[in-house]
Design a protein that fits this description.
By secondary structure, the chain is of the alpha/beta class. Helix content is 45%, strand content 14%. Helix 1 links the parallel strand 1 and strand 2. The structure holds uridine-5'-diphosphate-glucuronic acid.
Length: 444
């Protein structure tokens, strides 16, 4: 019989997982407490931008293989497997992970499960959470049903979410029994048939793999960005440095792109939650280096703001600044902890007239920072600009040439916050270019 799967939480992770599970041939229900989100998804309307996902959603809502509900009772008596994909945002008080949504979903589910089931956590949680939740499930679920927990962290990247879910680069199963492992093998049969590496382990290791991966990626980005501070001072080319480092197979070129730094809903909060969790465990200095990783990352934003001031001769007030890109990375409309939006907002607060264009991120940015100007094209953003900031490396921006902007701008000044332009070409065309990781001399 076809496996019946529920996916609890229909945000980024959950909605993607639900649609991909339907694509793999399972019967799926997505569950959320947000009625508005559920209504939209039920009509095949995806509330965020993710390449390839709208098509899957529509296809499987139409085929009837994918439904959505706000009713836990409906799925508790129906599904064989319940995936938990709710958010674990940063807690304001101590920067730890806020587990209220995970706890609430496990409690609600436990009370409504009326048939044997496997509950599979996918959310990013502090180590130790799964073992505690297994206890909650055992205590709160009916004595006549067999409910087990597994932890199966998710490594999907925004922009590549469908591919990363259907063909992940590895699978990690944190399990307490062979039955749970067997069930997860059924779910991921297609990927396992394509020789996707599988790690079967305990809860703690599974939880740690996820945070360790994100901590490593964040560290790698801040590593190259720390060298940016050096090349900005002494000279040198940060891109060439990264290329040369990347030829060492032990290091690799990926995640060595120097620029305005990392943001989004994952890397920043995950490195902070990890530090908080490890301190709770009494290991007060073990993750101190992540504090530096965070600091290096945030200093990149300061650098762009200060370059903008320098390029405008320290008189930013009333000057027009075009911001190209506010999403935290290309192919996404996500502006959570976006370095680009942070910089745009700070320059606005310094008195600049800031006009933003992002191919997908304008609406989310407007909700967070309504006082910036938002326009629908590069040309409109650049019109009469005294300075252009390229802050998210959309292909559309990477392909820009001086001739594209020259007719609009008032001042031929540009900060390449992602190191994606051919600086010599722009300088030859008479532009003043500043970039992260590059020495900048305001005099010329
Ligand atoms: C990240 C991880 O890459 C995923 O494996 C993980 O599943 C996900 O978090 C998560 O925990 O859910 P994502 O946040 O989608 O995925 O974005 P990344 O592609 O990792 O980029 C993160 C940030 O680093 C972006 O702001 C990006 O612009 C920046 N970055 C990336 C750099 O500044 N330089 C680089 O070389 C690479």
């Amino acid at each position: 019989m076809t496996l019946r799967i529920s996916v609890i939480g229909t945000g980024y992770l959950g909605a993607t997982h639900a649609a991909c599970m339907a694509e793999l041939g399972f019967e799926v229900i997505g569950v959320d407490v947000d009625q508005d989100k559920i209504s939209r998804l039920s009509q095949g309307d995806l509330p965020f931008h993710e390449p390839g996902l709208p098509e899957l959603l529509v296809k499987h809502v139409r085929s009837g293989r994918l439904r959505f509900t706000t009713d836990y009772a409906e799925v508790g008596g129906w599904a064989d497997i319940h995936f938990i994909g709710v958010g674990t945002p940063e807690r304001a008080a101590d920067r730890g992970a806020d587990l209220r949504y995970v706890d609430a979903s496990i409690q609600s589910l436990a009370r409504h499960i009326t048939r044997d089931a496997l509950v599979v956590g996918k959310s990013t949680v502090p180590v130790g959470t799964a073992r505690r939740l297994a206890g909650v499930l055992a205590a709160e679920s009916r004595p006549d049903v067999n409910v087990e927990l597994a932890w199966n962290p998710e490594f999907l990247r925004e922009g590549f979410a469908v591919k990363d879910t259907v063909s992940p680069d590895r699978l990690v199963f944190g399990v307490d029994s062979g039955t749970a492992e067997a069930r997860l093998r059924e779910v991921y049969a297609r990927a396992l048939g394509q020789d996707t590496p599988l790690v079967v382990t305990d809860f703690e290791t599974a939880e740690l793999v996820k945070v360790a991966a994100n901590a490593f990626l964040a560290t790698k980005i801040s590593f190259i960005n720390a060298f940016s501070e050096v090349t900005e001072t002494v000279g040198g080319d940060i891109r060439t440095l990264a290329d040369a480092l990347g030829f060492d197979a032990r290091i690799g070129r990926k995640f060595l792109n120097a620029g305005i730094g990392f943001g989004g809903g994952c890397l920043p909060k995950d490195i902070r939650a990890l530090q908080t969790r490890v301190s709770e465990l009494g290991l007060n200095h073990t993750m101190d280096f992540l504090h530096n990783v965070d600091d290096i990352n945030l200093r990149r934003r300061d650098r762009v703001v200060s370059l903008a001031h320098q390029m405008l001769d320290n008189s930013v007030a009333g000057r027009r600044i075009a911001v190209l890109g506010v999403a935290f990375k290309p192919d996404s409309d996500d502006v959570r902890d976006s370095p680009a939006l942070d910089v745009a907002g700070r320059l606005y607060n310094d008195g600049a007239e800031v006009t933003v264009y992002d191919p997908e991120g304008n609406d989310n940015a407007r909700r967070r920072f309504p006082r910036l100007g938002y326009v629908d094209s590069v040309a409109d953003a650049a019109r009469d600009a005294d300075l252009v900031l390229l802050l998210t490396e959309w292909n559309e921006f990477k392909a820009l040439t001086p001739a594209d902007l020259a007719p609009q701008v008032r001042g031929t000044r540009l900060v390449d916050g992602r190191n994606v332009l051919d600086h010599a070409q722009w300088e030859q065309a008479g532009w003043t270019i500043a970039a992260l990781g590059r020495r900048f001399d305001p005099a010329g």
